[in-house]
Amino acid sequence: MQTQGLNQYRIMWVLVFFDLPTETKIDRKRAAGFRKKLLKDGFSMFQFSIYLRHCPSRENANVHIKRVKLNLPPDGHVGIMIVTDKQFGMMELYFGKKAKKLPDVPQQLSLF
Fold first, then answer.
1. Tens of pLDDT along 18-77?
2. What is d(CA 21, CA 66) in angstroms, rounded to the nearest whole number?
3. Cβ atoms of 85 and 13 closer than 8 Å
4. Is 14:59 a contact under the CB 8 Å cutoff?
5. How remote is the C-alpha of 24 from its chain's centroid?
6. Is 19 annotated as contributing to ligand binding?
7. Backbone phi, psi, residue 13, to 5°
8. C-alpha dihedral, 40 to 105 to 11 to 71, nearest 10°
9. In this structure, are residues 86 and 9 in contact, taking their beta carbons and an 8 Å threshold?
10. pTM for the complete prediction?
């Protein structure tokens, strides 16, 4: 039996994109609550309305996707995308015309 070790194709990144209404006080409260729940679940802010989370496997990513879906606000648009670590590593980031390094990947511990 071959064990599936951690590799660039098994490790996943979950990205959550959203555009939520903020016109009323209750809208702002719901939007802030949604962001806080993402942070509590281990997501990091990539841009103001894009959050991401590193997951060691697709199965683990599915757990976090279920949590996001449980916390969806009643209004607005939310998108969820999964990419492999390999795909994520091919992203190019720029601030103005200066290239920026990708966020550090959390270190994974493998026990046998």
1. 999 999 999 999 999 999 999 999 999 999 999 999 999 999 999 999 999 999 999 999
2. 22
3. yes
4. no
5. 27
6. yes
7. -120, 130
8. 20
9. yes
10. 0.81
